[in-house]
Amino acid sequence: MKITRLRLEQVRQFRRPLELRDIDAGINLISGPNEAGKSTMVRAIRAAFFEKHRSMSVADLQPFGDSAAAPSIELDFHVAGIRYQLKKSFLQKKRADLMVGTDRLSNDDAETHLAELLGFAMSSRGASKAEQWGIPGLLWIEQGSGHEIHGAVGNASDHLRNALNSSLGEVTSTDGDDVLDLLKAERELLLTASTSRPTGVYKEVIEAMAGQQERLVALRQKIDDYREQVDRLGVVQAELAADDAARPWEAFEAQRQQAQAMLDGLAVAGRALDADRQALLQVEQKLQWLGEQARGFEQQSQQALQRRAEVEAANAAVVNAQERLAPSRTRLQAAEAALDDAQLIVAAARAELLRGTMATQLADWRSRHDAVERALAQARAHDAELAELRKVSIANQVDAVDLGNLQKIAAALRELEIRQQAVATRLSFVFEAGVKAFLDDESLETNGERLLSKPGELTIAGVGRLRIEPGGEDLGAMTSQKSRLEADRSLLLAKMGVADLAQAQGRQAVSQSVEQDMRRVQALSTQAAPKGVQALRLESVELQARIEALIVQQRTIEGPADGGTQVDADTSMDLFGFASPVHAAEASPDRSWTAPSESGPTPSLPEAERASTFAASQLKTAQAAAQDAQSSWVAARSRIAHAQAEWQAIDAILNLPERLDRIGANRAEQAMTVQQRDQLHAAVAAREAELVASQPSLLRQDVDRLGRSAEQALSAQSRRREEVLRLQSRLEEAGAQGLEDALAEAEAQAERSKRRHAELTLRAQALTLLVSLLEDKRRALTRRLQAPLQKHLDRHLQLLFPQAQVTLDEHLSPGLLTRGLPGRESETGDFHSLSFGAREQMALISRLAYADLLKEAGRPTLLILDDALVHSDATRLGQMKRILFDAATRHQVLLFTCHPDQWRDLGVPARSIDSMRVGPA
Amino acid sequence: MPRFLHTADWQIGRQYGQFPPDDAVPLAEERITVVQRIAALATERRVDAVLVAGDVFDTQTVDDRVQRRLFNALAAYRGPWLMIPGNHYAALAESVWTRARRLGCIPPDVHLLDKPGVIEMPSIGTAFLAAPLTQRHTYTDLTTDFDRWPSADGLLRVGLAHGSVQGVLADGIDATNPIHPDRARSARLDYLALGDWHGMKRIDDRTWYSGTPEPDRFRNNEAGMVLEVQIDTPGHTPVITPHAVGRFDWQSWQADIRVSSDVDALAERLAAVLPRDVVHLDLSGRADMAEHARIERLLSEAAGRARSLQVDRAAFRLMPTEADIAALQLDGYLGEVLVDLRSRQNNASVDDAEIAGAALTVLAGLLADRRAAAS
What we know:
The complex is a heterodimer.
Chain A: E1 2-9, E2 18-20, E3 27-31, H1 38-50, E4 72-79, E5 82-89, E6 95-100, E7 103-106, H2 107-118, H3 134-139, E8 140-141, H4 150-155, H5 157-168, H6 176-190, H7 200-246, H8 248-395, H9 400-423, E9 425-430, E10 437-439, E11 442-444, E12 447-452, E13 456-460, E14 464-468, H10 475-496, H11 501-528, H12 533-558, H13 564-577, H14 581-587, H15 605-654, H16 659-694, H17 696-736, H18 739-800, E15 805-808, E16 814-819, E17 827-830, H19 836-856, E18 862-866, H20 874-888, E19 892-897, E20 910-912
Helix pairs in contact in A: 5-18, 5-19, 6-18, 7-17, 7-18, 8-11, 8-12, 8-15, 8-16, 8-17, 9-10, 9-11, 12-13, 18-19, 19-20
Chain B: E1 3-7, H1 21-45, E2 49-52, H2 64-73, E3 81-83, H3 96-103, E4 110-112, E5 117-121, E6 126-131, E7 156-162, E8 164-165, E9 178-179, H4 183-186, E10 191-195, E11 201-204, E12 207-209, E13 225-230, E14 239-244, E15 249-257, H5 260-271, E16 277-287, H6 289-305, E17 308-318, H7 322-328, H8 333-347, H9 350-374
Parallel strand pairs in B: 1-2, 2-3, 3-4, 6-7, 7-10, 8-9, 10-12, 15-16, 16-17
Antiparallel strand pairs in B: 1-13, 5-6, 11-12, 13-14
Helix pairs in contact in B: 5-6, 8-9
C-alpha cells in the first residue's frame, strides 16, 4: 500500500485545507513543532479508515468551537497496482466515496471494502475501538505507545495467523485445540492440573483401597485370633476330658497320705529318741559326779602329804629366820653409830660456817662504828666554829631600818648644804704671798673661793677683819633644819652605838661576811651529820652495843675450849685488828667432835650433809633388813603353828574309819553307771541311724509336693472349665459377627477397588500421555508455523542486537529475549523486563517483522510512526534508522517528528507541515 | 437295594469378589438354590440318603441367616442327610456346626458325622464310615482307619471322606488331607463318597468325587452334578448315575484377534451366549477402528444376555489403519499424535504399550464421537 496524497479540510486546526502531495513510496519524514498538526494528520488518516462516515463520535475532528464544520479527508493510494481514492467527510456532511480503479463505492460499501482490504473491522456503533483496528492497529503506531505491542498483536492475530498459514501453505488443526482442551478436562477429573495428584473418583478409589486394606488387615487379624481361640478351645477341651477321665489329683492324694503316714511314724520314733537322749544326759551327769567324788577322796590323801611337807618347811624357815636375825641387828647398830657421827660432823660444819659469818659481821660493824665516830668529831668542830661566828655576827649586828634612816638623814643634810652654798655669798680671794687670812677660824690659802651661807668673819692677818653677812631670808630656815637633822643623826648614832654613818656601814659589812661563813660551816656540819649529831651519836652507841653482843655470841659458839681465851683475845683483838675466825679455827686443829675415823679439816657443810643423808639411808636399809629378819622370823613361827593345825585336821579325816567304805561304794556305783551309759549310747545311735535312713525332710517335701500336685491338678481342671466357658462365649460372640463372611465381602470389595484403580490408573496414564503428546506436537507445529515470522524478526533483531534470539509466544507476540552481551554470560528476559527504550525498539522491530510477513502474504502494509523512538540513545537510534531504512525498501513509512534534525541522515527531506497549507480554495 | 445321592462342596456363603455386585449376588444365591434342587431330586429319586462329602459351608463362620436358609433348603427331602465337615470348616472345637447346634437350626434328619467312626443304619442296610477333618489340614490319611473298622454283616460299607486322592489329581492339589487311591478296596468299601475336588471325577468303580453341584470357577471340569449311587447288595459294583443340577455354565474363553475372520468367529461365539452362561473372555490381538467398534458392540450385546461376561482386554489393542486415520480427517497435530500412539503400541515396553493403547482408544473414541456429533 502506498499513499500518494493526503488532503484535510476543516479538521481541527486545519480549518483551511492542508495537502500533502507526492508522498514517497519509501520513507517520508513529516516535521513540525509541537501542536503544529502532526497528530491531527495521523488522527485524520486513522479516522478516514476506521471511523464510519455516519459516526457522531468524531466531534474531535471539527475545528474547535466550529460545530458547523464538516471535516473531510481525501486520500489517494494504490494497493497491488490498483489505484484507490478515498474521500470521506463527517458530521455536517456525512459521506464516504471510494474509487477502486474505475469502480466507485459509496458510504458503507466503501467502508466495508476498505476494512477488508486493509485488515480491520468497522465499529457497528460509536467510535472505532482498538480491538477492531487489526493490521493498521499493529502497524500505525500512535504517539506514546511505541513500547506497547501485545495488545495490538492480539487485535491483529487473526490476520497474522492467516498470513502465516498462507505462507506455510498448510491448514492448522482446527480440532486440535478443542480435543486438547477436552482431554485436559478429562484428565483433570482424575489428576490435578498443577501437581498431577489423584483427584475426584481416582482419589476416592485410592482412599477406598487404603480403607479396605485396613479393614482387611483388621478382619484377618480377627479371624486369626478367632482361629487361635478355636484351636485353644480344642486343646483345652481335650485336656479337660482327659483329666476328667484320669482324675490325676486322686493318685496324688493317695501318695500324699502314704507319705504322711510314714512321716507320722517317724515322729513317734523321734520322741523315743529324745527320751533316750535325756536319760543318757542324766547318766553322764551322774557319772561325772561320781568321778568328782572319787577325785575328792584322792585329793584328801594328797593334801595330807602336802600339809606334812608344809610343817617341815615351816620349821626350816624358822631356823633360817633366826639365823638372819642377829647379823641384821649388828648392822643396825653400826648404822646408827655412823649416823650419829655424821650428824656431829654436820653440826661442826654448821658452827664453822656461823663463825665465819659472825667475824665478817663484826668487821663490818666495827668499820661503820669508826666512820660514825669520825663524822661525830667533825660535826662537833664545825659547831664550835659556828658558835664563834655567831658571837661576831651578833656584835656587828646593825638594824637595817636604823641604818636606812641614818643614810636618809645624811642625804638630807648633804642636800641642805648644797642649797646653802647655792644661796651663799661667793667669796673669791687671792692673797699676796705670806698673807695669812682666816675666815672665822679657818685659815685660808692664798688663792681660793668660799661660799658663805651664814655670816662669817674674814680675818686677814695684818689687815683686819672683815665681816661678811650673806643675804637672803632662807638661810636661816636652812640652818635650823640642818640643826634638827643633825640632832636626829646624833640620836640615831647613839642608838646604834656608832660614831658615824661609816662606822655603821662597816659594821653591816662585817655582819654580812660572818653570816656567809656561818652558812658554809653549817653546810659542812650538815654534811658530816646529815641527821644531826645526836643521831650520829646514837648510831655509834648502837653499833658499839651490837659489836659487844656479837663478841659474846662468838664466845658462846667457841664453847669451852683450850683456845677459848685465845679466841677471846682474838675476838677482842678483832674488834680492832679484824682477825678472821678461820685463823681461830686453824689455831685449834684437833677438836674432840671431829669424826673418829677421820682426822683433818672439817668437811664443808654440803659434803657433811651428803654424808649424813647417806648414813641415814644406810640406817633405813639396816632397819628394814632388821625388820624383815624380824618379821620373817615371826612369820615362820606362825606358819609352823598353822601348818601344824592343818596337818592335824587332815590327818584326823584320813583316819576316819568309814572313809574306806565310802571309797569302795563310789567305785562300785561308777562301774554300774558306765554300763548304763554305754547301753543308752547304743540305743540313741540306733534310733538316729533309723531316722536318717528314712529321710523325713524328703518325706515332708513329698507330702507338700503331692498335696500341691493334687491341688494343682484340681485347679487346672477348674481353670480349664472356666477357659472353655470363656472361649465358647467369646467364639459365640465372634461367630455371630460372621467374620469370614465379612472378610469375603471385604475381599470382594478390595478386588473391585483394585480393578477400578487399575482402570483409572490406566486411564489417567493414557490421558497424561495424550495431553503431553498433543502439547508437544502443538508446540512443534506452532514453531513451524511461526517460522516465517521468526525469520523476519531474527533478521531485524540481528541489526539491533547481534547474536540475540527472541521467541514468539502462542499469540505471536515477542516473548523471551536472549542476548549475548560482550564480556558477560548471555541473559534471558521477558519482553516486559526490558527497559522502556529497548521495549520501544523491540516493538518496532516486531512490527516491521509483522509488516514483512503481511506483505509476503499479500496484505497491504503501511507504517506510520508518530514521534517514535524518542527514548533511544544515539547508537540505538542509528541502528534503528538502518533498520527503518531497510524496511522502507519494502513498505511505505510515514514518520512524524518534532525533531527533524535527529532524522536528517535518513536520506529524505523533512517536509514541514506549514509548507503543506493550501491557500483558500 | 439302597440308593443314595452323593454330593459335596456346596461352599455355602461363598462370595464372588471378582464379579461386579450385580453378578456376584445371584451367583452366591444360586449356591443355596441348588441345594433345594438336590433335595427335590432326592425326593423325586426316592433315595435312601443324601451323602454330603464335606465343605457344606465356605467358611467357618457363616452368617446365621445363611445357615438358616441352608437348612431350610433341605426341607424338600426328609432325609437322612449325612454330612461330614471339610477343610473349609473342619470339625474344630468351635465351628459352623457347633454354632448351628446352638442355634438349634439343624433339622433332626441331618446327621453330622463330625467324629471319626462308623454309624450303622440297618434301616437302610448301610454302615457309614466317616473320616471328618478335625483339623484344617492334615498330612495323614484319615481314611486309613476305615481298613480296621468293622461293621455288621449284611450292611453296605459306605465311606465319606474329604481330601485329595494321592497321585490322581493335579500336582499341588493333593498336598494336604491325603487319601489313598486304593482305599475302597483296602477297607472293603462298597462305595467311597469323596469331596474336595469341584469337578465330577471317577477314581475307580467304587470311588468318586461328585464335584460341586453349582459351578463356582471357570475351570472346565464337569462341575454342576450330583451322583446317584445304587448298590444292589454288599460287594456289588455300584451303579453311578450323574444328574446335572447346576444352573450356571462357567466358561473361560480366549479370543485372539488377528484378522477380520477372527472377529467373525468371536461374533458367532458371542451370539450363542445364553443367560445361564458365566463367561470370562481373554481378549488379545489387535483391531482397526471398525473391527474394534464391532467387537465392543458384540461384547456389549452378549453381556446383556449372559449371566456375566467379564472381558480382559489387557492384551488387546486398537490399531487404526492409515485409512482409519484418513477417515478421521485429522488435521494438524492430532494426526501426528495418533500415528505416534500407534507406533508406541508396537515399539514401547509392555506397560507403555498398554498405556499407549489406552490413550489411542480414548483419542479414537473422542474423535469418533466428535465426528458422529458433527455429522
